[in-house]
Amino acid sequence: MLLEISHLTVRYEKAVLINDLTLSVDTGELVSLVGPNGAGKSTTLRAISGLVAWEREIKRRSTSGDIFLDGTVTFDGERIEAIPAHEIVRRGLVLCPERRRPFREMTVLENLLAGAYLQKDKRKSRETLEKVYALFPVLKERTRQISGTLSGGEQQMLAIGRALMSEPQLLCIDEPSTGLAPIMRQEVFAKIEEIKRLGITILLVEQEVSTVFKLAARNYVLSSGKLIAHGRGEELLKDETLRKTYLGM
Fold it and tell me: Which pLDDT does position 54 carry in this prediction?
């Protein structure tokens, strides 16, 4: 397995956001993590990418609040739950965050190059940039445009492109369809499927369950931080209680 999460628990103050979660992602898979709002999906991505550990350290230094993190996260055979977020990126696990979050005052090109900040080989960065432009031609057309003036769909493509500039082994994508028109959602999902065909492993958090289940090899369903179900999309959809209560279908 490329990624193995074992008995992961995350608690902020007295609120348990992730409760004893175990899941895995094999090399080359597209795996989804779905569930209702507040289920703990984004917190899971933040935990495996090192951001929860970073937040815990900030809280410890400021002596305000408490963040508890327990369990193990193994990536490419090595434990990573206690190492800094930038080192996790260096090892090939990259998070594309929810709501896109471009550097709004910077150009498209500057945003993309920011994604390659750990890459010291400029020639390799240029090669990766051309691959991103090939995947997202609209970004090449808008290379000098200020990112804050892009449409929502273009900003989402930019966010994914920026993450790809780090050359991930595992790309974690958080809610890519949020706030997008239906036609743009379809285009973004098509690009995600294309990225998977390029051989990049993907862990996808998404509310658009019907579309995601068609893309993903396996799916994990969370509710209130706990794993409710796990399996292939067609298997999960046969459970009427699961479909109505946890998937909103």
Answer: 67
